[in-house]
Specification:
This protein is mainly alpha-helical and 124 residues long. It has a two-stranded antiparallel sheet. α2 packs across α3 and α4 packs antiparallel against α6. It has one domain. The model has no long low-confidence stretch (mean pLDDT 91). It has six helices and two strands, in the order αββααααα. It is 68% helix and 6% strand.
Amino acid sequence: MEKSIFEQMGGKYEQQGDYLLPCLTVSTEEEQPIGIWGQRHGRYLKEHHRILYYSLLTDGKLNSYLTDIDRQAEELFSRLVKQIAEQEGVTEKLKAQDQMAWIGKINNIRNQAMEIVHNDLIFN
């Protein structure tokens, strides 16, 4: 009997009852914790880009992809908060003088940075 394409590529079959079933295994990838940015991007992919999501999932690359996105987003967020705070003059001196004003300004800066990260990395 002629070998199937699956057998020609090194695949094997296993007899189960009257059927020959291919022996398939999914490659295991090391599970890494995914932060909030990666989880948001994963949800976005699952809802809006299903082909990419399931392709990454079946290739065993979804976890590493989402952890990489999470790392990039966290670095971008931190850098943006620092840059915007410097531009607007939000310093430790202001924090010592007027804590409530400092908190308000920092919250606004964090929200701006969060919007930029969402638009550039998470929902793109």
